[in-house]
């Protein structure tokens, strides 16, 4: 009887071990298939349509991030790469006035110029999105396999005129709203009163509009470089496939 019990226990142990092994095998097999599926989805040669979709997805992410960053408070003022300084012809004015203790007047002008640009940047996103929608498959392929700033150059080519047209009235309104026009008038008036100086006149709207657009392209270029160089920035299987293909083509 004792021998029968030992035999039964042994058979039960063998059966349990086999069931456990089979279960582990099935789980590992499922895991393997899931892993293969996820990795193969991000590799291979993308179709022309996938390249177009991938580039548009990447650029929408990039321009949204760039425009949102710049349109926030201190988006220009707090970013040394795009901060708007005094117009070139007024920089001598700034140095002179700071030397006689009028720092706050100069600071007010610079702050207000940047506030006006931040206001204008809120209007940039729809213009960029429209340019993305109008992009051809040839444009997309050229951007993908082009230089690291190919997308930024594309945007410069197709959006600059629209941005200038859209930004100019916004900047004009913003300059008045944030007192930039008044501050700058005060600054130049103070300077022009000094003996033996050449009067300074600046088209503030034109200057700030151009600087705001330049700043947008700088931020778009940062986003473009990020998605080209950092795998972690490729947030979807499509982006991984499309930009992975570009990596192989350029290696």
Automatic annotation (TrEMBL):
Keyword Signal attributed: yes
Keyword Signal: yes
Pfam families for this protein: DUF4197 (PF13852)
Record's keyword terms, sorted: Signal
Signal peptide: 1-23
InterPro entries per UniProt: DUF4197
Name assigned to this protein: DUF4197 domain-containing protein
């Amino acid at each position: 009887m004792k021998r029968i019990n030992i035999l039964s226990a042994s058979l039960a142990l063998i059966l349990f071990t086999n069931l456990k092994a089979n279960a582990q095998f099935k789980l590992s097999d499922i895991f393997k298939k899931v892993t293969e599926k996820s990795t193969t989805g991000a590799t291979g040669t993308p179709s022309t349509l996938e390249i177009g979709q991938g580039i548009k997805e990447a650029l929408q992410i990039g321009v949204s991030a760039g425009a949102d960053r710049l349109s926030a408070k201190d988006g220009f003022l707090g970013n040394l790469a795009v901060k708007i300084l005094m117009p070139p012809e007024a920089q001598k004015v700034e140095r002179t006035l700071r030397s006689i203790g009028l720092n706050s007047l100069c600071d007010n002008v610079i702050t207000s110029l940047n506030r006006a640009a931040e206001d204008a940047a809120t209007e940039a996103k729809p213009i960029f999105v429209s340019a993305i929608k109008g992009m051809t498959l040839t444009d997309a392929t050229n951007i993908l396999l082009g230089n690291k700033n190919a997308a930024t150059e594309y945007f410069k080519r197709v959006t600059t005129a629209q941005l200038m047209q859209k930004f100019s009235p916004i900047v004009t309104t913003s300059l008045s709203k944030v007192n930039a026009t008044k501050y700058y008038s005060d600054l130049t008036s103070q300077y022009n009163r000094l003996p033996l100086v050449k009067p300074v006149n600046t088209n503030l709207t034109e200057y700030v509009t151009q600087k705001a657009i330049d700043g947008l392209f700088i931020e778009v270029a940062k986003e473009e470089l990020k998605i080209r160089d950092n795998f972690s920035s490729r947030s979807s299987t499509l982006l991984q496939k499309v930009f992975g293909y570009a990596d192989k083509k350029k290696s």
